[in-house]
Structure formats: C-alpha cells, structure tokens
Amino acid sequence: MENLSTNSLIQSVPKQILARHGKTFYWASLFLGSELADRVAQLYQFCRFVDDLADGDLPNREGSLEDIRARLNGSNRLAGPEVEAFMLLAKENGIPLIAARELLDGMLKDQKPMIISDEAELLRYCHAVAGTVGLMMCRVLKCQNQRADNFAIDLGIAMQLTNISRDVLEDAKMGRRYLPTSWVDLTASAIAEGGIDSHQPIALAVDRLLDLAEGYYQSALLGIQLLPFRSRLSIIIALRVYRQIGWVLKRRSLPWWQGRVFVTKPEKAFLSLRSLADLKSRKVPEHKKELHQHLQGLAGV
Predict the structure, then answer these.
(1) What domains lie within the chain, and their CATH numbers?
(2) How many Cβ atoms sit within 10 Å of the Cβ of residue 225?
(3) pLDDT of residue 145
(4) pLDDT tens digits for 14-26?
(5) Whole-prediction pTM value?
C-alpha cells in the first residue's frame, strides 16, 4: 500500500503543475481520458521546468540550460529528475529529441537581450519554443499520421504568437522585445515604461501579430482531423480557448500597457461546446508551404 500511494503521488505531480500553471491546457486535458492526460501532463512538466529555469532568477541559468541540452544530446551530464523523467517519456513515446534540443535552443536565446529583427526571425523563435512542443505533443497523443506534424507546428507557433501579444509589457520588463524591429523600432525599456507615445505603435504591432497568428490557427484547425479521434476534442478546445486571448485583446482595443488579459470561465465553457462542431469529419487539404517558408532546416520541417 505504501508503494502504491507513493506511485500515485508521483503520477499526480505533473497534473498538479499543469493545473496550477497551464489552466487552458489543464481544462483541455480533462477531455482526453486519464492515460493520455497523464502523458500530456508529463510533457508539460518538462516544458514548464525549462521555461521556469529560463525565466527565473537562479544563478548560472544559461549553464543549467546547456547541461539539459547536453543530456538531450546523449551526454551523461546530470540535469535533474525532471529531465530524466522526460527522457523516459520520450523513449516510451518516440518523441524526437531534436525537437527538445531546439526547445532548449530557444530558451538559451532568451538568456541574452532579446531583440527580434524581422518576421522570419520571429517565426523561427516561435518554432523553437512552441512549434517543437507541437511536434512532441503529436507523439504523446500517439498520432501515426506524419502529415499531422506540419499542422502541430502551426498550432504551437500560433499559440506562441498569442503569448507574445498577451505578454508584451511583462516581456519588456525582462528586457525582451519579440515584436520585430521591422514592425516597430522601440526598445524593450521604452515599451516597459508604457508611456502614452508607445501605446499606438505597439498596439498596431500587436494587431499585426494576432493577424499573423490567425493564419496558423486556421491551418492547425484543419490538421486536427489527422489526430486520433480520442484526442481531437481536447486539442480543438485548447486551440479555441487560446485563440480567444487574442480576440479578447482586440475586443478591448489592444490595451497591452495594462498587462495580461484572460479568458473567462463562461467563455471557456462556450468555446468547449462550440468545439464539438469541429469534430465533424472532413478532408484535410495539403499543408500551405508558405507558412513554413522561414522554417527550413528546423525540426519537423
């Protein structure tokens, strides 16, 4: 009985982390069933671990991230129980470690002053920190159709573009400006001040960011048909709820200087019901190559 209780506790930790830090994904995971939900929570635990490390205030963050990347590349270097748990998950589910290594590359890039120069660099960054997660999620959900990879990458990119649009002020206070210079030439410190002169130019850039995300959301919604049926509703719900963040921003006239916006529980419930209509079987068209024109050579592309 003691071992059973210990194992149950160990299995519950990833779900607790998902419930506390990934409310949208936790809500969506409730529609997966316990086995798939457990694997999704384990993947989220690893992604959250490296993300918290990258954004935290611990000394030698860069060295710790490099240790994790080295472990993912086959080194025997110690990297912590969270990484070892992920290595086991990857082995059991056929997760391509190149995707995890590129995720670490994105986190390492965040350790230096972040100034994105153009749309191509923005999309390559989004692929690193989120498109790769889409690839890994496909394996966790036991998707056998390789065509799904392109659409999974699109969902990750769309969600990351939404993250950036939601967190403009918060990121700027950390010295990060993901809005391309080719769109708006303001420093992170100028954005962090939130002065009235910056309101309109940044709002226009955020609007452009959300329009860019919309193309990737539309593609991802088509590709969800390639997932195993048991997984589709959960992923559709995650897509629609995350996409709603951008629509809330637009509905409120893009007040980025006021901090984060959130999707309410009634909205989540409505979007979950709305997602049922997306389960209708339909033919999946060929993936739009132009969506990945800037991602050549990266994992899954």
Answers:
(1) 2-292 (1.10.600.10)
(2) 19
(3) 95
(4) 767 666 656 676 7
(5) 0.91
- Which letter, b or e, does each residue of 98-128 get, where b requires 16 or more Cβ atoms within 10 Å of its Cβ? ebbbbbbbbbbebeeebebeeeebbbbbbbb
Are the C-beta atoms of residues 11 and 85 closer than 8 Å to each other?
A: no
Which two three-digit tokens encode residue 203? 């709002």
Closest CA to 36 of 50, 55, 15, 67: 15
Gap between the Cα atoms of 24 and 237, Å rounded: 9
